[in-house]
Amino acid sequence: RLLKDKGVNADVSSLFELKLALKLGFKMIIYTAPYKSDEELKLVLEHCDRVVLNVDNMHELDKIIKLVSWRQPRGRLKISFRLGGLVSGIGWDKFGLSLDELRVAAGLVMENKPLKLAGVHLH
Predict the structure, then answer these.
(1) Cβ-proximal residues to 23 (8 Å cutoff; 6+ apart), any chain
(2) CB 95 within 8 A of CB 56
(3) Are residues 109 and 116 in contact, defined by beta-carbon separation less than 8 angstroms?
């Protein structure tokens, strides 16, 4: 609460943390979970005015596009993409899109009016 009262935003990665950040009244929440259930995505949609959703892969983005077409959020859902596998030779891209996937994914977000491109996230 002290941090929230000082204007700090929240970066959360589980359903429990998301619910807590919403309950505490954070004005901006970045949601970065490696796998997001339907329950989590529906909660994010209900609070799309305060939550930025970090998307990990194309499958997840497809799921979100279908969900927003069915549920029609009150506002635009802010999407950020997690980039992975950027370091040459490591070959580990468990979490995140490649740069080629990012180009396609950003285009899909811009084509869907309930979505808004909000940024990128990388380690």
Answers:
(1) none
(2) yes
(3) yes
